Amino acid sequence: MDDGTMDDGAMPYQNRLALFPLTTRIQGDGDGARLTIGECDLAELAALYGTPLYLYDRATMDAAADAYRQALARHYPAAGGVTYAGKAFLCVAAAQWVIEQGFHLDCTGAGELHIAEQAGVARERIIMHGVNKSREELAAGLAKAGVIVVDNVTELSALCELSQALATALPALWLRVKPGVAVDTHAYRQTGQEQSKFGMAPDEVLEAVAICRQRGWPLSGLHFHQGSHFHNPAPIGPALETVLDLTAHLAQVHQWQPETLCVGGGWGVAYHEDDLPQPDIDHYVAFVAAALQAGCQRRGLRLPRLQFEPGRSLVARAGVALYRVGATKQAGTRRWVLIDGGMADNPRPALYGARYSALPVQAPQRPWAGTASLAGPYCESGDVLIEELPLPNLAPGELIAIPASGAYHLMMGSNYNGARKPAVLWLDASRANLIQRREAVTSLTARDEPLPQAATDRSLPCPN
To answer: Would the pTM count as exceeding 0.85?
Structure first.
C-alpha cells in the first residue's frame, strides 16, 4: 500500500527488517533516522569505503552456527558436525571464522583450497568437492584435504593413480551418491535428481565401494546433496531411504558401512518479506535426525556420524549489500531506480529470477510511493536486481540496502563491463573491519599481455 501501512496494521518496513541481520536497528527519528547494523552507521561506512559495499554481521553468523550445534545436540544421539559450504562466501577471514566455530570447510577446486590454506584451516578439517576435478586439483586435494568427495568412478581411478605417482597417501574418501530425488527449488539449483551431473547412481556406488575394498583404499563416508534454497525438508526423507537401502546392501555384500553420512546443505533463508518467517534450522535438523535414526533402526544399521553442509543458511542473512542511487526515471508505467551495482556483484536475479527486498538507509520508515524496479549500470536488459518493489521516493545520492546478500553474490560475481569487486566489511562488536579491499582498476589488466609486434620469446610456433 502506498501510505506505508499494511492491512494488518504493521508497517511494511518493519516486516523487511526481519530480513536483515539480527543487529539491525533504526537509529533516530523522522527524516534523520538511519539504518545501523552492529551499531555501525551504514551511511558512514558507505562514505568511507564507497559503494557497492558488502557488510557481514558476525553476530548473525554466530547465531546461525549456534542453531546448528544446538539442534544436532538436541536431536541426534550419535556424533554429528557441521561443514561450512565455502561456495556460499569464502575469503581468508570467512575461513578463519570457520576455524573459530570448530566446523569443517567444504572447498571446491584448487583455488578454494588455497584460501583455506592461507587462513590456516587444518588439513583434517578440509573436505574437497568438485564434479570434474582436474589433475591439478586432485593433486592439490591430495596435499591439502583431509577428505576428498569422489564424484564418479573415473575420478576415483585417476585419484588413486595420481596418489601412487606422487607417492602421496590417500586422504579419507567419501562417495557422492545421486539419490534420484531433488528438493523443491529452481531447476538450476537442483542436484539430486537422476539426470543430475553430480554424483553416482547406486549401482555406480556399489562398483566404487568394491574397488576401494579390494585395494584397501580409505573409504569412510557417503555424501548426497539434493539442491539449494529449499524450505521444506520432506524430500530428504525419500533420499535418505534410498541411501540407507544402499548402505544396508553394502553392509551385506561388502561388510562396509559409512562412518560418516553427509546429507549436504541447501536449507533456505527469507529473501523477500513474502518468504517470512525465516525457515527454522532446528526443524530442518530435527527432521533429518529423526528420519536417519528411524531408517537405521529398521535396517539394523549403526548410526553414522551425521554431517550437515550449510552455506546459505549460515551467511545469507548476515550479509547486506549497499548501493547508491544514481538516477531515477519513469518509463511508461515503470519507475526505475538506477544504482551503482547489479549483476556484476549479484548475478542471482539474472541467473534464476532470485527475488529480493530493500530499504533506504536514510529514513527507512518513510511511506511507500508506489513500486519501483532497481537496475544496475551494466549493458544488459537483465541487469535488474529487484522488480516492482514498493518503495518510497528516492533521490539521487541516496543509499539503499539489500538484505540477505551474504551468499553466492560475491562468489558468483564478475568483472563484466570492467566492474571491480566491491569492498567487504566484517561487523563485530561495534567495529567495522575491512576483510576484502575494493578491487583496483590495475587488477583488471594484471593478467594481460600486449599484442606482439614481432616474434618474441613469448611467441610459440604453431604446429604444422
So the answer is: yes
